[in-house]
Amino acid sequence: MLNRVQMVNGSADLFRHVSADKAAFYRCIMAVFAAAKRLYRLQLRPDEVLAEAHWPEGRPRIEEVNAALAQLAAWGNLESQPDTARVASLNDFYRARFLYRLSQGGEAVETALAVFIQTLQRRAELQTVALEDITSRLHALQALVDEGASDVAKIHEVLRDLVRVFEGLAENAQDFMAGVARSIELQQAEAEAVAGYKRRLIDYLERFMGDLVRRSDSIASLILALAPSIDGLLERVAEREASDAAPGDEREQADARAQRLEAWRERWQGLRGWFLSTGHEPPQAELLRARGRSAIPQLLGAIAALNERRSGRSDRSADFRMLAGWFVDCADDGEAHRLARAAFALNPARHFALNTDADDALPASTRWADAPPLLIHPRLREYGEAAPRGALPRVRDRGEARALLAIQLAEESQQIEAARRRLATGIPTRLSEFGELDSHGFGLFLGLLGEALTEQAGPDATVERQTGDGLLHIRLEPADAAAHATIRTPLGSFAGRDHLITITPMQAA
């Protein structure tokens, strides 16, 4: 545990040059050593670093480079050793001269930073070629199974290529699903750039989605065909990989085989889950197609939002500058006053009628300065409203209106009751036998028919139910499908399939 803590503390020093005061200076030096590592150069002298580095702020002095190299060596990014190749005298021997090379930790930091920058700069891609490669690898694997080939190396090679291609496809698709809309770029783009990107994205999606739909079924069929024999193939490949494991006892060798077999099974399960449904989850290819289809509405929404922001943009300072120019162009003060009234809505407010007395009524065009003073009631100041002055209005006698309303209600009740007596006979009657109904009878009939039809399970089913007010019982039995009924009303004719209807008052029922 102590060694691990020391290792963590030491690794933290390896990244100190990234956030130090002279971080850009240190990164220039480390870039030289990373390039030398790629060219298989083992060591560099300070003067070589000074000559090969790209200094953004001008060429420094050799003393500054020596100090930076010593600091990087102290942090562990570089390793140094005395440079005795250029010693020509005893004084040269005692003078501090060093050769520098990347340390193991420094090389790991450079690799990590390169991967980090590459990941940030990578753009998501939908790899149509990867689908073709996956199909060809599965065909090759199926051919090996059909031939009964015992060449484990060939099977291993095909599976490695298949996994490599599939991992690239899955990784790029995941990145695409996470950032397809490119909302940050669209917010800053011009209208022409957005329109061009929209066309390219739609063409790109159509091409990939079409190929994905065409190849998904064939890939899924190949995976299902390989299902009976895939476990045996994975076991043979895992055993071949385990033969290169470090020497150990039988238990360690068995664990190595089990770990490699489990890793291959997870890879195959991931490939299967991409093109075949696993349990309740749809295939990942289906999710990718859905995400691709939703990308176009997202893009259109982003374009609409961009246009809305541009069309609805308000610049108050620009408006005032334009208004100032209009004031300068006014011919006289009268025109300037009219412009001010129109621009700032300086209209009279006499239409509010705060003066309730007839003597105080003034035209709406009267200036407030020319009008008599307005007396504000204290209640208006306190509560925001004021009771009108004067006597309270007389109570209106509504007896005549109530009597008229009672007469109308009685007449309507009599008409409805007459319609109920005509329809609610308790005798089965065909709709074609109703003949002509008045407006009240037809309204009652439509209400009863509507309540019955809501309970009908099918067009040929018989239905019975009680009305919502509990006064009538309805039984509706469809007649022959070819039978037709027409009911005439003052508003027109009501026609449809004939039914046998029985309407019975609940007391009789």
Topology of this protein?
Blueprint: H1 2-14, H2 16-19, H3 23-38, H4 46-52, H5 62-75, E1 78-82, H6 90-94, E2 98-102, H7 104-121, H8 128-147, H9 152-179, H10 183-188, H11 191-242, H12 250-275, H13 284-311, H14 316-328, H15 333-344, H16 378-383, H17 399-423, E3 429-430, H18 439-453, E4 463-466, E5 472-478, E6 484-489, E7 492-497, E8 499-505
Antiparallel strand pairs: 1-2, 3-8, 4-5, 5-8, 6-7
Helix pairs in contact: 4-5, 8-9, 8-11, 9-11, 11-12, 11-13, 17-18
Quickly give the structural class: alpha+beta
- What's the main sheet like? 4 strands, antiparallel
Q: Note the overall shape.
A: flat
Helix content: 55-70%
The tally of helices reads: 18
Q: What is the arithmetic mean of pLDDT?
A: 76
Which blocks of ≥5 consecutive residues have pLDDT under 50?
1-6
Beta-strand portion reads 5-15%
**Number of folding domains?**
4
Q: Which series of helices and strands comes N to C?
A: HHHHHEHEHHHHHHHHHHHEHEEEEE
Strand order of the largest sheet: 3-8-5-4
From the N-terminal CA to the C-terminal CA, the straight-line distance is 91 Å
| CA-based gyration radius | 45 Å
Number of strands: 8
Describe this structure in words.
By secondary structure, the protein is of the alpha+beta class. The chain folds into four domains: 2-120, Orthogonal Bundle (Arc Repressor Mutant, subunit A); 125-308, no CATH class; 317-347, no CATH class; 409-505, no CATH class. Helix content is 61%, strand content 8%. It is built from 18 helices and eight strands. It has helices at 2-14, 16-19, 23-38, 46-52, 62-75, 90-94, 104-121, 128-147, 152-179, 183-188, 191-242, 250-275, 284-311, 316-328, 333-344, 378-383, 399-423, 439-453; strands at 78-82, 98-102, 429-430, 463-466, 472-478, 484-489, 492-497, 499-505. The strands form three sheets. Strands 3-8-5-4 form a four-stranded antiparallel sheet, with helices on one face. It has a two-stranded antiparallel ribbon with strand order 1-2. Helix 8 (128-147) runs parallel beside helix 11, helix 11 (191-242) packs antiparallel against helix 13 (284-311) and helix 17 (399-423) crosses helix 18 (439-453). The protein is flat, with a radius of gyration of 45 Å. The chain starts with a helix and ends with a strand.
